[in-house]
User: Which sequence fits this backbone?
């Protein structure tokens, strides 16, 4: 009767495994620390490849201007 869960589930970005979005899952949205590390590693690699590029070029143009 109390099986209805309001827990949100997400798919692990790395392997697609369903992961419950709860505090217990410290690796969310990843299913495990391995997937988290793998994904972060790829992200870090991409960041490294574009090192030196401005992160937010739009901010530099937004010099007190109101759109
Ligand atoms: Zn995973």
Assistant:
């Amino acid at each position: 009767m109390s099986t209805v869960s309001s827990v949100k589930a997400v798919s692990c970005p790395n392997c697609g495994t369903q992961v419950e979005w709860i505090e217990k899952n410290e690796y969310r949205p990843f299913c495990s620390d391995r997937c988290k590390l793998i994904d972060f590693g790829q992200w870090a690699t991409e960041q490294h490849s574009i090192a030196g590029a401005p992160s937010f070029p739009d901010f530099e143009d937004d010099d007190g201007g109101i759109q």
